[in-house]
Amino acid sequence: MKKSKIYYDANFAIKQYRGMGKYINNFVSVIKSETKEIPIGLLVGGEKSSDESIAFGLLNYVLWEQISLPRFLKKKSGIVLFPYNTAPLFLNITSRHVLILHDLIYMHGFETNSLKQKIGAYYRRFIVPKIIHKFENIITVSEYSKTEIISRFNIPASRITVIYNSVVLDQEHTENLDVDSRDNYIFHIGGEPAYKNSKSVISAFARLDIKLQEKYKLKIVGIRNEKSRKEYHSFINKLGLENKVTLLEYQTDAEITCLYQKASVFVFPSLYEGFGIPIIESFKYGCPLVCSNSSCFPEVAGDGAIFFDPQDINSIATAIELAVSDKNKAEQIVSNGYLQLQRFSQESFRERVVNWYNFNYNKIQ
């Protein structure tokens, strides 16, 4: 059978990518291996074309998406994936076009010091309400996100498919129930936006029992903006924690893996996410998880976490203290996390993608 082409925006799936980039890379990898489609990545002008990608048009991403991309697609047939919550305003959307809508964080107006993130949020807040009703085929990453999309935009449930994020269970995935062998630090992946709630982790650390403060340190990844780093250092100093809290620079995937594997506990305090990839990453590496009870997190974490109220500093501190002080409880949630992880294995992801493709192909070809 002759293979056809499936096009997708690959701009955030190259170089230093996480989150949405990993998702679309995994998605097209399944499409390539399991269907008759040949995935072709589309890139802004200035990037390098290859056998599997085409670079064309304007250099600025927003202008490329709104001007260059629709011009290119007018000449093409086949399925087109828009994987980053947005799409061209003036493209004639057809049943061949698929919107991957990870979350609606940008609709909530959370504050951030990052100009890039502010622009991205304003852009999506403007674009999404104008294009979402045009799509007959929407993919999202959790039942929570599906429910929110239906509620906010009155989209029929039949148009939305949930395909969870996934992790590869490879040789690095080994049960790690011996919490005594871990290093004495608490780990958190945060960020500048207010919904990441990173300052609350620092405040909670300051409220730990003094013996625990003396024993443990707090390591934070994700605070990259220079203005935010200065603000965080000032906040840390005011709490007298300058020798206890470290804001790490950019970490590679291998370095992130090592941090999970050695941490005594991973803290995930977000107020809102579409899925929460760090949850399943902590499961994979057997790191005891204490987690916000809001948003989609109970759906994703199941019985594999100690939950807390992310708006209550004392609740966060109590959960951390339980995880580092009660060995049996820590080992129980690690064991539960391994079981929960099976829902988000690469095999489960592959099955969902294939089922989605088989169910929809006759409609979107």
TrEMBL record:
Q: Does the keyword Transferase apply?
A: yes
Q: What GO terms describe the biological role, i.e. biological process, of this protein?
A: lipopolysaccharide biosynthetic process
Keywords (A to Z) from UniProt: Transferase
Q: TM segments?
A: none
Question: Cross-referenced InterPro entries, in alphabetical order?
Answer: Glyco_trans_1, Glyco_trans_4-like_N
Molecular functions per Gene Ontology? glycosyltransferase activity
Q: Which residues form the Glycosyl transferase family domain?
A: 172-338
* Domain Glycosyltransferase subfamily 4-like N-terminal per the UniProt entry, residue ranges: 96-170
Please indicate if the UniProt record lists Manganese as a keyword: no
- Extract the PANTHER family matched here: GLYCOSYLTRANSFERASE WBBK-RELATED (PTHR46401)
Q: What is this protein called?
A: Glycosyltransferase family 1 protein
Gene source species: Pedobacter agri
